[in-house]
Structures are given as structure tokens and as C-alpha cells.
Amino acid sequence: MKSVEPRQLTFVFADSPKGNKARDSQDESSGKRFLVHIAKGNGRMVPATCTTVARRLLESVVSASNLAQALLNVLRNKGAPGVDGRSVEQVVEEAPALLPELQKSLLGGTYQPGDIRRVWIPKPGGGERGLGIPNVVDRWVQQAVLQVLEPIFEPLFHRSSHGFRANRGAHTAIAEAKQYLGEGYQVVVDLDLSKFFDRVHHQRLLNRLEQQLRDKGVLNLVRQMLKAKVVLPDGTKTSTEEGTPQGGPLSPLLSNIVLDEWDWELERRGLRFVRYADDCNIFVRSQRAGERVMASTRRYLENRLRLQINEAKSSVTQPDKVHFLGFRFGTASSSPNVDVLISAKTKVKLAAKILEMTPRRWGSSLRVCMDKLDRYFQGWIGYFWICTKAGADEFRRYDAHARRRLRAIVICQKKRSRFLYRHLVRRGASSGQAAGVAFYRQGVWSRSNRRGMTKAYPNVWFQGQFGSLYDRWRMANPPEQVPRQLSLAW
Fold this sequence. Notes:
This protein is an alpha+beta fold. It is built from 21 helices and 12 strands. Strands 3-2-5-6 form a 4-stranded mixed beta sheet, with no helix packed on it. A 4-stranded antiparallel beta sheet has the order 7-8-4-9, with helices on both faces. Helix 2 (about 55-60) packs across helix 6. The radius of gyration is 27 Å and the shape is globular.
């Protein structure tokens, strides 16, 4: 492998609030208490030491403490029932009886995964995405396998792979992309794989697993999971010849194992890239270089990995036109500074969500509407707080739009003009200002921004009712705070 000169990559994070870890044990079911007790045992082996002895890896998977912890993780992740209709709570309650039976079947080789329930969910850009929902017991087994395999493969993955990995994620991916752009690699080869999870080649995946695992029991178990039949919404049952169903705990790890070969090929070619699952950005210095990389990458993926590029979502483009994990970038040739902004698709989704949450014919109190909006804004900014100042300035427009939508709700709820007039006067608008809203002949949207409404419901009033996006961003990025840093040595 081509040697690379060590580099230093710095990721910046704001301190996150400490959660309340207090638990009320009285609310726990007997099944959960049983699992917590077993999970504290010493039955789980160290995964890294299990690769040299046959069957030791499978024993680590089926150890009581590992299985107990796996079911606790499945319970925390919740999720819908599979084909058999059993909920997570039911399986947890039956855990004292199910755990020894599951251990026996896994060690004896008699375990057979159930069918996978296929559901379709709408994709933000149109179309539908297929999810595969295994039975809860099968998710339990997948989680147990994941907990043992992940420590084996995690150190082998490329540093520029950020999806579904501990201590990495969308924010670290954006930080790395930002660094490459600042270094002058300001042409982006934006790659998206077409139906990646449905096209994973089983034998290639198993061969990659076999390179690190010597335990045939675990390999056979993974093979059975990959070959599980899928039940479509109309009841039709189909066999699975390729792909890993999205919806199971093991699928993200398997996808990273498949694409790790691609990562190291890009490294061998000396390319700078950032990958998050099947979404990858490669950074080059010129349009010509980008076109060349796009062509060679297409050939490698199709001929070597038997995967296809989604041509509609892939291109050689400028940073400000990229939609990478909901973000885009602002760059200037004369400055090394790179702005992190929300992408065009994110703007459309945010505007549509505000519209959905503030309907004109809101049938409850304004307080309830603002509480819902406040919770959504809090969750939204929890992801997009890494935007720079230029990106945060765009938040003001959505804050103003939300306030105007709320003022329109007030107009509609007052129904009659004279009721609205009296209400605005009571809230501090002058008689002329109130009349200019209540008896104005234009529609609700036009009236919602007239002087009488902004006087009765000024911006400062809304600040006390719910946190705006821009205010929340400022709280997450106080100028006087020195952010803590996570440094990865390359």
C-alpha cells in the first residue's frame, strides 16, 4: 500500500449536556431486570481473541452476557414487530425462557432465521425505499453478532469512512470534507450508489468476512441471515439472492465491510474522499480531474464490486451545489475559509415541515402549536448546529416564516373581523393598526404581516414562547466558549 504522509485532522464539537441517568427500577419489567442482571456477568469473551480458535467466536456470540446486552440494545432501539407479530416488549418479558433456548439452537446449528417483513417508506426526493424488518428474535441474534464482530472489523476500516461507526458520524464527515476544501480541493465528485443495500453480492461479502473470521459457525449464521426470505406487503414470499435488508442491526456493519474495499482502493490512488454509507464525496482540484475520477470509479464499482452508480444523484460539481448529509459548502478561491450551509434539499424539507406544523385551520390553542414547533426546532438544530455563521444567517428567514405562520393562525382563529379587532387592541395595537388588520380586504397571509399584527405579536413575544433556530444555534456556538477538540492522527 502506498505510504501516506501523516496529517492531522481536527474535529470541533460543542459540549453536549449530560443526560439524566437516573432510572426508576420499579418501572422495569421482570424480563428487563433479568437481562440487566445477566448482562453484568463475565460470560462474554473478548472478541479480538476469538479469531484464532475455531468455534470460540460463536461461543462469544451466544454467551449469556452478550445475548442479554444485545436484547437490551434491541429494546432501546425499539422498532416494529416482524412477520411473527411479536413486539420487543413481549420478547423481553419472555427472555428468561427464550435465552437458554436460543443459546442451544445457535450452538447446535439448528437456529433458522425467520422471514423478513418488507415495508416501503417514502424517500425525501421522491420514490420509495424498501426496509426489511426481521422478527425481534432475529434482530436479537443480529445484535449479538454485531457486538462481537464490530470490535474485530472497526480497526480495519478506513479513517475516511464515517457512517455507522463509533465516535464518527455526519458531523465528523463534514469536518473532514471542510478540511479538504480548505486545502484547495474544490471540485467534488459526488457519488451515490443505486439501491446499494439491495445489490450487495453475498459471496463477495462472505469472502471478505472469511479473511478475518475462522469460525465457520459465525460465517454460516451470517449466510443464513443474508438468505432469509422476504415477505412483501401483498403476502408474496421471495428468496434473496443478493443484498442486505435495511432494518436489521447487522446491515450497517456488513455494508461497511463491503465498501471498505472501495475505500482502500481510493486510498491507493491517492484520492481525498469522505464516505458515509453509500454516499461518497471525492475532492479534486479541477473539473477535468473530476471527470476522470468519475469514469474510473464507475468502472471499478461495476466491474469489481458489482455495484452501480445512481447517475441521477451523482455528478462532478462545485461545493455549493452538493447535497451531502443535508449540507452544502461555501468556498472562495481567495480564502481558505469554508462555510458550512444547509443544502437546497434541506431548505425545501424545512419549509415544508413548518408549513405542515402550522396549518391555518389549527384546531387547538396557539400554545400547543408553538410547543410542537419548539420540539421540532430543538431536534433540528441538534443536527444542523455545525453550520457556520453564514449558514446560520439563513435560519433567520425560517424563524420569520414560522412567526408569520403563527400570526396567520391567530387571524383565522378569531373568525370575525370585530373579534380580531378587539383582540389586537387588547394586545397593545392602536385602533388604526388593529383596524388595518381586521378590516383589511386582502387575504390572511397578507394581513399576517401588517403593522397591527406585528405590534400585537412582536418578535420579542415569540422569543419567550419557543426557541428560534438562530437563537438555538447561538446557544450551541457561544463566541466566548472554546470548543473541545477531537484530533485524529493520520
